[in-house]
Structure formats: C-alpha cells, structure tokens
Amino acid sequence: MNIIQMNNIKPGDGLVRSKSFLGLIDHYGLYVGQSKVIENHPLHGVRLITLAEFLDGRQLLRIKRYTGSEWSRSNAVNKAHRMIGTRYDVLDFNCEHFVNHIHNIGVKSNQADVARGLFFGVLAIGFIAAISGD
Length: 134
Known about the structure:
Number of helices: 5
Number of domains: 1
Largest sheet: 5 strands, antiparallel
C-alpha cells in the first residue's frame, strides 16, 4: 500500500513536508492525482512534479484536506493547473500561499507572517539599541 492509499489522499488535498534541516520551515504542495503534485518552488515557481520529487526523501508531515464538494475539488485542481508558471515570492506568494489560495482560504501564509514579525522585531530592537546610545 502506498502513501496515497494509506492516507486516503485525494486530488485537491494539500501536502506538507519539512523543508529545512531543523524542521523549522514546511513545504506545501497540492496533490492533483496520479502521484503528481503542483508546488510553488522558489527557483521554478508553480510547477507540476511527481510525489517522489515533492517529498524529496522526507516524510509527509500532514495533509490539509480539501473540504469542498467533489465538483469544487475538481475546480480547485483545474485552478492549480492554470497557475503553473506563476512566479514564487517568499513573502507574498510562497508555497503555503499557493495551497491556501487553491483551498479558497485566501492568499496567506503563517510562515511568512512569522518571518515578517521576526524581521520587524529584530529591526525594532536594533533601533531602540541605536537610539539609547548603548
């Protein structure tokens, strides 16, 4: 039994695997059937790859189930196919944004929001240190 059957993964479901060595960053893709995934990759943008290429030897961490009807699930997969070639943007359209957009959650990414918060937090600390003269 393969990973698709074991986890009852259906076209339109989001797949999440670890991206970084320490597991701090996750990578998202959309399962589209026939062991294929559409992902938004930093170097290649939105593209169609095999499930094995998506997993890249790593474990599947979780599945973001598509919650719509079979008809809307099919439309979501078609929407993902139409987005092939769209450019990647780490803060405004990364892999998490892509899957959330296809799932009609909106173009949002918790990971990007955390990164922005950390950046501005460090910037604020640096600014305070600079004006305090220490």
